[in-house]
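COURSE: Structural Biology Practicum
ASSIGNMENT: Worksheet 4, Part C
STUDENT ID: 0417
INSTRUCTIONS: Below are two proteins. For each, the amino acid sequence is given first, followed by its structure token string. Answer the questions at the end about the second protein only.

PROTEIN I
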Amino acid sequence: MSQSINILWFRKDLRLKDNPALVEANLNAKILPIFILDDSNPKENKMGGASRVWLYHSLKSLNNSLENKLNYYKGDPIQIINGLIKHNKVSGVYWNRCYEPWEISRDKKIKNLLNLSNIKVKSFNGSLIREPWEVLKEDKTPYKVFTALYKKAYINSDITVKTLNKPTKINFPSIISASNSLDSLKLLPKLPWAKSIIKDWKVGEEEAHIKTNTFFKQGIENYKEGRNFPFKKNVSRLSPHLHFGEISPKQLWAKAKNINSNINIEHFISEICWREFSYYLLYHFPSLPKDNLQKKFNSFPWVDNEFFFDSWKRGKTGYPIIDAGMRELYTTGYMHNRVRMIVASFLVKNLLIHWHKGERWFWDCLFDADLANNSASWQWVAGSGADAAPYFRIFNPITQGVKFDIDGKYTKQYVPELKDMPNKYLFSPWEAPDDILNKANVVLGVNYPKPIIDIKESREKALYAFSLIK
């Protein structure tokens, strides 16, 4: 009698190590590994262009790890899984959970239908340290302040974080229903950008672990302070690998905990938990991507100015640290976290443009575009979210550039028009005397834009706008 088959549905867990669904599905059965590109989700949550590029290469890497046995499908997961069950001797379906509201709803429906068909179905936590429903306040309501949740759920709790080894052997069925090719998913945009944006990245589980080991050997030292400087090597750049599950937060937690605790290790762990907090908020407040958590912001007088927004997107604002960040985003699929805060503050406070528009642009341009992190972070900067930055905390792009890009290397890398500008005037080139501009080959308004707004006036306008909703 032939051995039964378990369907292993890969989603945002594109790895073999520490994959609980894989380990469970591999017990006493052959595994049929599948990936389904589900474009039926709500339009505003469809994967952005950069994410699709990363996903293509990550799936290619995973398929190599699975001895070229990964099966690709596109469409409604319910119909696809039912078709596989109909044509194969399937006894169970296994996956690791996702936490977007529409995915939770869809997965519940799939579980109910499979249970009615007497097909075993199990889901697992493969993406978080703790599930969002595990910790509530005394009054059984969810936390809205990070520090309170961090202390209760992670620091003062006795949680034990265990990681799983990759199965020593995975058995695959010899004959299955034909799947599509990876290319048939049409993940890669038909633009030269799709090739150029990925050229400096290495994708996949193996590369995620190489980058992790390098970070803990070289980058963790002085992490707490060094991570604020975009040209230093104190950030892990692991966020795309985490987003697609090429490495798990439990693996990073365990790696950090194996090192003697110090201020840098503790801060790195807290950053892992900020990611957890975003998922916690999305689970308990599923309207987070659309609705202000602080309702008073529903009446905020946002400005609809396409020139401002387009200048911001293209890195043509006339404020060099802003322009460097936006160009880094578009050309690399990534932006340093400190710079993310600076450019986001500039959009929602200096330009008074709704955080929705910034969130959507990040969604399309970031490899690590993550519904929970993206929504929570934009609301944090806008002042409308849980545990948000005070609205009057408006990042000054001039002083931020001077402070965090001290030698100008980051800015000059992404804004080469200013590569010969003395650092004294780099972040406010309009203040440079004509002879300095001439020596630097900078013609304001010609080869580098003049500032699109006055920073002091825009700050006053922002504070006035906020006073209207207090």
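PROTEIN II
(use this one for the questions)
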Amino acid sequence: MSDLFNIVKKQGSNWIAFWRARPRTLRRLIYAGAILAASGLIFVVGFQVAYRQVGPYAFIAKVDNRLTAPFQSAERPALESGTYPTTLLTLISDVGIVPTGLGARGRIGLYEQGGGMTSFGDDVLLLVYTGDVFAATSGEDIRKTTIRAPKNGRDAYLALADDPESGYNFHRGYLRYNDLIFVDTTARRGLIAAYSEFHAERACTTNTLAFLPIASEVETIAEVTADESDWEILYRTEPCLPLKTKHLAVEGQMAGGRLAFAPPATLYMTSGDYHLDGMRSEGAPIAQDPEADYGKLLSIDLETGVVAHVSTGHRNMQGIGFGADGALYLAEHGPRGGDELNRIEPGANYGWPRVSLGTTYSGAPLPQAETLGRHDGYEAPIAAWVPSVAVSGMALVSGFHDAWDGDLLVATLQDRALHRVRMSGGHVQYIERIGIEQRLRQVHQHTDGRLVLWTDNQELVFLSS
């Protein structure tokens, strides 16, 4: 053993002497090359782990979520009432803060978002993340109503999210209320809420619709009092989605859940794919599964209860509305690039994730895609945003101003702007960007003609011309 040690020691000394005899410049070049090679290897391995979401990905994602949680409430400049010049007219804004209790102005958690807007009588109604419903007529007149939204299973969801032994990765705020609409048909009069519902007993999630009846003689929201048990379940999507082991357990930010109503009795709901796309999930993409209610536009007959798939192959449709031509339009999130404006043709397949104008978030091609950056073989969007603007709510302008009437308004999150879409003969003539400098979650036209924006900074913005 001693002889072996002496031999190794001697060889090591010889190698060190040989290395030190090399020119300093050569040694530095060799050092630099070794560092570059190691860095390249680490990058390639890291990219494959992130792209394929294998190996230590789940552990790294969970640690990242824990570390970034304290920073999810970032300072944002508050909007003030004022004006927004546009090409054809000047918008006059009236801004008010909604007292959601989620935090002071400008310090709202990034994930405590969602909600929906509708009108009832003279009031704009707003359903927020907490399940409270607010009524407003202006920025200075915002009131909490005595209506509570139906339970969505959030208590059990948060208990599981906070359990270090659960084995799943969660974003705590991704179980959301997604929309609210007032309907008045021969069979039903009242409010309909759309939301992601967590079913603790089965540990699974659905897109759920619930109805709150309002009697015909009720004219103001101040006359309505309701708690969670007063809502009637209209529909739960099928199947109930089990917790995902890849990426996030529940991806309610991909739920869609936006509503539109067509007289006499048809309700439309966008039902997103919850990232069950074969990339952030195991198995085949659910949007192309004809038996599943996800990645679909659904119609619900409020008189008969019949539910049907209107169109398929969708990702996450955050905007829905009828155009001046009577057609139904959807604003849909693409991945990295390729947000879409789709004109709905009943029975059509819009291709997700087999076709897309975008890529994965890493920049790599979509592994399910049949082409790169093209939309061949499926119903194509009538317009798209590349790069993505993160489309959200959508509304038709009617009776606001002659210069805008008949246009579609699309709110955006990442772009922090309102996009006015001029339609002509079923085609997009142009899109005007109007910078608001806040993440816009929803846009709605009130019964008195004013436009109303709901921001991720918990602001209601009333716009007039």
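ANSWER KEY EXCERPT:
Q1: Confidence is low (pLDDT under 50) at residues 47-54, 57-75, 104-108.
Q2: The helical segments are 2-21, 24-52, 57-68, 154-161.
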